[in-house]
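Input sequence (185 aa), recorded before submission:
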Amino acid sequence: MASQPKDNNDDHNNLRLYNPYQDLQIPIQTLYKLPTSPEFLFNEESLSQRRSWSENLTYYTGGCYLAGSLAGAGKGLVAGVRASEPGDTMKLRVNRILNESGHTGRKFGNRAGVIGLIYSGLESSMLAIRDRDDIVNSVVAGLGTGAVYRAAAGVRSAAVAGAVGGVLVGLAVAAKQVVKRYVPI
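Predicted structure, token format:
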């Protein structure tokens, strides 16, 4: 093994770099801890951390449509597999599954998108009327969404759907609060 030639810059390796904070008794790790939460100039800005009504409309409608489409496609997949017959070719089975998944996915997606649209409108309206952002807005919007969505089926159906909508939204808001409190992010 050949020895490495001696570097004339060995003095550079032994130099201690200047630290301007060494006399302040501040641990270097905590010197540059930046905040992870957003900072606001005015206190009012920090109190209203909400999406606008158009952002809410897009978010809820699109999210519900996507979730409904995925659920419908899954149900269509199962129905397409069950509908296959023993004499079908692979091409015919795949075609049947794709047709059933697409049809059911569109149907479920459109229904869920309408529910998201109604909910976002009612929640934004509640926020504008009450000028307060709390759980009541979400639960009342859930109640109203169920009632409006099933209103054409009769008063009883609308009342039951409204109650189901309010309970589901209440559970979702409570679960969100639990996750925010106990799950470190």
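Checked by second reader. Residues 52-131 form one domain.
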